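Quick one, tokens below:
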């Protein structure tokens, strides 16, 4: 915007801000008044917008004045964290205390009040769940039996056995182009390259390099991670050397940046050599990729194990190996190394069949972890040996997998080839296909396992419910699937200390059970039986005798230890016989358990009285807000918000009194508030039997001055709490039929004043609330207020521009007039006047 400066200024009007306005002395014009008159239309428009905005702000404040008491009402009477939660059945139940009486009162507890006279004469049996426990070791799934803590190898410890080792173990670093490094590593034991099937050892080495490149991710020029094999390729040249080249054809050089381990030493790789800079590994004629002269003992020297005992892990270095060492002497040296780290709580020894065994005291958990090759050399069968079932192992590793002409077997069970589920999708980056559930498949819709081969499914059936698992399913996933299948009705737990899996029915009673058959319902082998054996365990019903209103009921059964007797909830905790034989030979049930119910209604009565007062305040506030007429002036015009210029000549008290009149009836006729009031009245006046029930306990409605309110007859309420507390509870919290009083009121309050959730209450969405910080910035009225801010800002810019325009115009006029006056004076002087 333009600005004005001049030789003199008056700055008498607020519309000019910091501008310097010429006084009009030269022209004799009242320039300030003329400019003010010229822009008065803009000022009027701005004042009008500001008044509308102020009116919206008053509406917003008034609307929050309605919603805030409702929010506080919900927090006090319907919140789970409130001590006066009248929406909770437990709040009402606490007013009724039921005590068990008699010699065996500790065997039974009860809540609520029965409409009958009840005595429990005896409890001969408690209801139990079905349970079935199986030892993992007994089922051949691993770990030790009988509570022992022993991690035992699967093969004999043979230290003098020959062991082939790679002569090219280590890491190779390739430089692709100017700034990409690709690292691939070669294992000492697994990467053994020999000539076979017409393929040279060198070619097997090259094939392995390309496979490792395919499994290594690097970023391309677009920042996308792709397989390194899309950029670099290894080949054997005519001289039998390994040559790396740019497979992408992007013109990038491929050089050897370095190498480590035997790869560097035995192949003489030097990053500064000409061959490395040319991306070539020179192989000597008949280079031996494998060292056949090594022994297991020599290989193990200096290697280490990680031992975890009862959750505490330490690294133990394996002892050195001498030609004179036997398996027994080596185990003794390993035992010494273990006891230096753990003390006498752990040891190592050979079993009678020559296997290495790590042992700890009964009740401990023990695991031994090593590199895969180290574990195999020690005869552990793999990287880990544990005193318990390793639930992370797959079913394939636990049961054994064999390929057959027709497919696959798992533990001798024949599998069913699995197909893709839904549409399959190809991922160009990973060069893989997946189905709609993310399963790995091939282009022919066959499910693939982790090894990239056809995957087969095996049916697991328990309690008639079926699940499907594969060779790649971990045992822990099997247990999780059982626990997640509610229809199966069983929970499964595993104890490392006992090395056993226990199954427990979810429900008690004779109807509950755990059934595992050898065959599934369709006649196939049952994977559940293969893993855990067959089972047919049943729960038991509770058995008791009771007396109801003087009538005896013998040998009553219940599926659960908690059951209802005419409104009273009884829980059986133990067995007892309440029958007593008297000295005269007669018998009676004088040791039976009886019940006494007492009522402490003060807390409930106080809470209901407080709630009714707050609810009546809300009803009046809502009604008054939408029904109060606005104030009108003597000329029948409404009071509008004052503009800044209006306030200039008014005292603070006069402004306050005026605005009080202007705010009256600001929400008059609001349809949301009218609807809210109607719904609240419906909630407290349900009609029919519901109203009759409330009236019977002293809760009624009345109508006065146009407002419906709730009244409480405290004497009737206390009587109802004493005689029929459950009815009082249900009258407030019931969710069936027309619903309870608090259920219905709470729903209306939530619909209009909820402060949580994606969609807040109607009033909060409309005006925001201090109880929901984000709603203060995001509500309907605030959007309208913000829109007026934008309009006011635009009109203020227009006003400023217009003032600048007129100020410049009159400044030029003053300047020209001054110049003309000066020239006139000069001419007059020259002419001698």
């Amino acid at each position: 915007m333009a600005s004005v400066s001049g030789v003199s200024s008056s700055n008498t009007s607020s519309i000019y801000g910091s501008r310097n306005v010429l006084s009009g002395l030269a022209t004799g014009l009242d320039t300030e008044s003329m400019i003010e008159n010229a822009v008065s239309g803009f000022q009027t428009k701005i004042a009008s917008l500001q008044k509308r905005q102020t009116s919206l702000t008053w509406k917003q404040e008034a609307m929050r004045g309605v919603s805030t008491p409702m929010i506080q009402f919900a927090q006090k009477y319907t919140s789970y964290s409130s001590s006066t939660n009248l929406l909770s059945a437990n709040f009402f139940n606490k007013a009724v205390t039921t005590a068990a009486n008699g010699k065996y009162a500790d065997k039974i507890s009860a809540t609520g009040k029965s409409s009958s006279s009840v005595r429990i004469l005896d409890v001969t049996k408690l209801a139990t769940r079905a349970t079935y426990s199986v030892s993992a070791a007994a089922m051949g799934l691993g770990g030790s039996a009988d509570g022992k803590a022993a991690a035992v190898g699967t093969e004999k410890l043979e230290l003098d056995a020959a062991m082939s080792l790679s002569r090219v173990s280590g890491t190779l670093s390739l430089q692709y182009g100017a700034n990409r490094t690709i690292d691939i590593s070669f294992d000492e034991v697994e990467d053994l390259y020999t000539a076979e099937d017409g393929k040279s050892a060198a070619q097997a080495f090259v094939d392995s390099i390309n496979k490792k490149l395919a499994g290594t991710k690097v970023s391309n020029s677009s920042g996308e991670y792709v397989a390194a094999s899309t950029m670099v390729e290894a080949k054997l040249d005519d001289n039998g050397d390994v040559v790396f080249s740019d497979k992408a054809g992007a013109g990038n050089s491929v050089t050897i940046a370095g190498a480590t381990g035997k790869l560097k030493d035995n192949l003489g790789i030097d990053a500064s050599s000409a061959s490395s800079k040319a991306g070539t590994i020179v192989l000597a004629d008949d280079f031996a990729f494998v060292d056949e002269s090594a022994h297991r003992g020599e290989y193990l020297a200096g290697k280490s194990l990680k031992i975890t005992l009862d959750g505490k892990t330490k690294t133990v270095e394996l002892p050195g190996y001498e030609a004179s060492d036997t398996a027994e002497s080596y185990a003794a040296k390993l035992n010494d190394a273990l006891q230096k780290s753990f003390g006498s709580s752990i040891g190592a020894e050979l079993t009678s069949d020559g296997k290495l065994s790590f042992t700890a005291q009964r009740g401990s958990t023990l695991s031994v972890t090593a590199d895969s090759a180290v574990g195999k050399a020690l005869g552990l069968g793999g990287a880990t040996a544990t005193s318990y079932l390793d639930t992370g192992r797959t079913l394939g590793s636990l049961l054994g997998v064999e390929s057959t002409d027709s497919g696959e077997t798992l533990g001798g069970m024949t599998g069913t080839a699995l197909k893709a589920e839904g549409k399959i999708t190809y991922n160009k980056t990973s060069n893989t296909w997946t189905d709609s559930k993310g399963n790995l498949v091939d282009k022919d819709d066959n499910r693939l396992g982790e090894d990239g081969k056809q995957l087969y499914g095996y049916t697991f059936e328990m309690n008639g419910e079926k699940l499907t698992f594969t060779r790649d399913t971990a045992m822990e996933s099997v247990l999780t699937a059982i626990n997640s299948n509610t229809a199966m009705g069983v929970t499964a737990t595993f104890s490392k200390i006992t090395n056993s899996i226990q199954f427990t029915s979810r429900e008690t009673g004779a109807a509950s059970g755990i059934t595992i058959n050898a065959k599934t319902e369709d006649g196939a082998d049952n994977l559940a039986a293969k893993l855990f054996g067959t089972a047919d365990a049943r729960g038991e019903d509770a058995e008791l005798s009771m007396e109801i209103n003087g009538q005896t009921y013998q040998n009553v059964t219940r599926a659960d230890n908690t059951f209802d007797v005419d409104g009273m909830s009884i829980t059986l905790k133990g067995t007892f016989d309440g029958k007593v034989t008297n000295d005269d030979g007669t018998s009676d049930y004088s040791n039976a358990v009886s019940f006494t119910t007492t009522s402490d209604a003060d807390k409930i009565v106080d809470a209901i009285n407080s709630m009714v007062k707050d609810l009546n305040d809300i009803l009046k506030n809502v009604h008054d807000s939408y029904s109060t007429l606005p104030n009108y002036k003597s000329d029948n015009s409404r009071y509008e918000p004052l503009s800044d210029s209006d306030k200039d000549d008014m005292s603070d008290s006069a402004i306050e009194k005026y605005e009080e009149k202007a705010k009256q009836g600001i929400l008059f006729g609001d349809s949301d508030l009218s609807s809210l009031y109607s719904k609240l009245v419906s909630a407290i006046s349900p009609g029919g039997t519901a109203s009759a029930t409330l009236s019977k306990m002293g809760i009624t409605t009345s109508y006065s001055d146009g407002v419906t309110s709730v009244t409480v007859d405290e004497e009737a309420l206390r009587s109802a709490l004493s005689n029929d507390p459950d009815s009082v509870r249900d009258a407030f919290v019931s969710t069936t039929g027309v619903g309870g009083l608090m259920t219905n009121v709470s729903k209306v309050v939530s619909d209009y004043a909820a402060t949580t959730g994606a969609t807040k209450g109607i009033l909060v969405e409309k005006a925001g609330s201090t109880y929901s910080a984000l709603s203060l910035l995001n509500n309907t009225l605030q959007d309208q207020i913000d829109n007026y801010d934008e309009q006011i800002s635009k009109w203020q810019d227009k006003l400023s521009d217009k003032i600048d325009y007129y100020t410049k115009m009159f400044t030029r006029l003053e300047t020209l007039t001054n110049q003309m006056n000066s020239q006139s004076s000069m001419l007059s002087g020259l002419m001698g006047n």
